[in-house]
TrEMBL record:
This is TetR/AcrR family transcriptional regulator C-terminal domain-containing protein. The lineage of its organism: Bacteria, Bacillati, Actinomycetota, Actinomycetes, Kitasatosporales. InterPro entries: Homeodomain-like_sf (IPR009057), HTH-type_TetR-like_transc_reg (IPR050109), HTH_TetR (IPR001647), Repressor_TetR_C (IPR004111), Tet_transcr_reg_TetR (IPR003012), Tet_transcr_reg_TetR-rel_C_sf (IPR036271). PROSITE patterns: HTH_TETR_2. Keywords: DNA-binding, Repressor, Transcription, Transcription regulation. Residues 16-76 form the HTH tetR-type domain. It comes from Streptomyces cylindrosporus.
Amino acid sequence: MQRTRGRAPSGGRAGALSQEVIVGAAVSLLDELGERGLTFRLLAKELNTGTGALYWHVSNKDELVDLAADQVLGHAFAAHPSLEEDAASGLRALAVAVFDALDRHPWAASHVSAPPTLANALRLLDRVGTLVARTGLPAERHFTVATAISYYITGVSAQIIAPRPTHDATVSREDFLARTARRWEELDPADYPFLTRTTQHLRDHADRDQFIAGLDLLLDGLNATAAPRPPAGDSNAW
């Protein structure tokens, strides 16, 4: 929603812009330059306007980046618009769509907050909750399960995706994983038996597959918990 802040800047173009247009331009700059490279001056130049006109719609850079991340999250809903499907398959498709959207915009992953406050983050939790409510789970568990799934989607995506831009931009993901794997290989197998056995898997793993593996475990547990129980005395129950 467009925000008003008293008088429009004199000579500014607040009326010619919208928050959506500003945020969309910010997404493009963030994709190109990263969070550190985004400035209001550069954004104003991109939109052929003055910085005062931008501040008419957005308070500061922190708010702008949060709104840009929320717009990215909204793109995931565009990729998965329907709720007319089985709850478990719907949750899986929605979660993967969100991961893929954040994976295309790695800077956004750590800005999708929990508990959600912005429009599309709220829609994500509401959509997850709507799908959870379609299972056989008791109503009193809907909130707990829906928030757990929603926080898995956003939190694990952030853990997997967000660290990438924090490393030296000259170090590729493959180089970083190889360097980390070598560090694991140097560990004492007596103290770290699992890590020293799995260094090659660290080098070769796909982030998306890792996300989906955890998601499927979560949804398998939901299916088992929500499955209707046989009536008492049913001879086929055992």
